[in-house]
Amino acid sequence: MDKEILDIVNNIDIDESEFEHIDVELNDIEKRRIRNKYRKSVKKKNYFVKKIVMVSGLVCITVIGGFMVTPTRASNIPILGKVYEGLGVYDEYEEYRKYVGESIQVKGGKYTLEELMITPYKSLMAIRITSDKPILESEMEFMVDANIGGISWDRGTTKSYRIDDYNIVEVIEQSYDKKIPQKALVKINIHQMETLEKPSFIEQGKFHLKADFGNSYNDFESIDISNLVMKNLLLEFSKINASVMGTDITGTIKIKDESNNYSLDEISEKYSKLQLLLEVDNNFFSAPLNTSWSKIGKSINGSIKVKIPNLKYEEIKKAKDIKLSVYENKYTSLENLSVYESDNAINNLNSKNEQKDNIKEINGVKYKETIEFSDGHKGVFSNLNINNNTISISYKGNKEDIHYLTNLTLEVLNEQSELYSHFKIYPQVFKDSNKEDEFFIKFKNIPQDKNLEIFTGFGEEWNNKKLLEVYEVK
Predict the structure, then answer these.
(1) Predicted confidence (pLDDT) per residue in 207-229, tens digit
(2) Which UniProt keywords apply (predicted)?
């Protein structure tokens, strides 16, 4: 690791006596991670939708990221800057990330745990995989089994980057149902996946380290919302947990299936239509319900987690007013795709919004100027400005367009593959207090010298929503 990189991160300084209370006999828990991907093709662009059903302690890593340099060998790579930038892990974490730099030399290569950041219910780690021989595309699959303080994660996502023929970086984010201890023993196992036809050539590696997670752990706010219950949906909310890595809304669903009429797929489909809208001091955020299910006898139990990555600890802590609204989408994501493919009116609507003369570009940022919706009304974007690494843009339409706006993302176009990269920035959406149909949108911490586009959520122009409930949280 270059000295300039070491100068901008903090080494972990551990007093071993502080960890005498930790039980090092940890339970090994493995569950298979399921990642269903399906491609939605709109005009000439391909948009990927990842549906992560459940992860518990085991993550399958497949490298699908962009290429940072031409194929060559790089033994000392400034990972913490360019790679994190390419993956969307940005400077907002600089004061919280802990440089580890611990390497394990194994037969066939080396694993390096570059960084680790922990909050009470989330973790973020970066692992570099270095091979003694070039890694073919068909060999880019690794499994990571991690345990922090005896607790395994239940959901996880990865962002991957190929540095060169010999080096891969994985940035892995997990969430946990149980609270992680602030001082904990961290166990991470990593190995290359193999088959009879494709044996592994890098041996398994194991990291064992003790850590005190510091500010990233302490900057945390939790709001109890267990009094919020939707009886008709058997849904009980639990908590709003806010940290430096974003905000999660959790809850449970308990169903008695006395006649054994329901399959887990049917139940999952029903609840996948639900969408939450969180209003924090006139700032709006939305996200769909992510659910996981189990069935024991006649009892069906579900856990929900709504992830809002762009709403951080400080905003929740300082908030004076918080409202939680529950909506129901007309279509599920799969139904949305079917409607697009089978309904000519919807297809024509999408084509109209995608027309070349409707795409504007200002200072390297593309966006659709006018958006037409299935009910006939239109929304118009205007006044795009870039200042201090922040993009701001105005919007005028209908008050219901708040759902459309909160589902916007700012993305970096990967010119080599003509697909959108991993990088995404989610917006902050403000409503004009005097005009219910006018909004102001901000994207913060934007990358420099990149081709950017404000991407609209697929199907939001026709997937109408029905308000089910509004709760006063604070």
Answers:
(1) 998 888 888 899 999 999 999 99
(2) Membrane, Transmembrane, Transmembrane helix
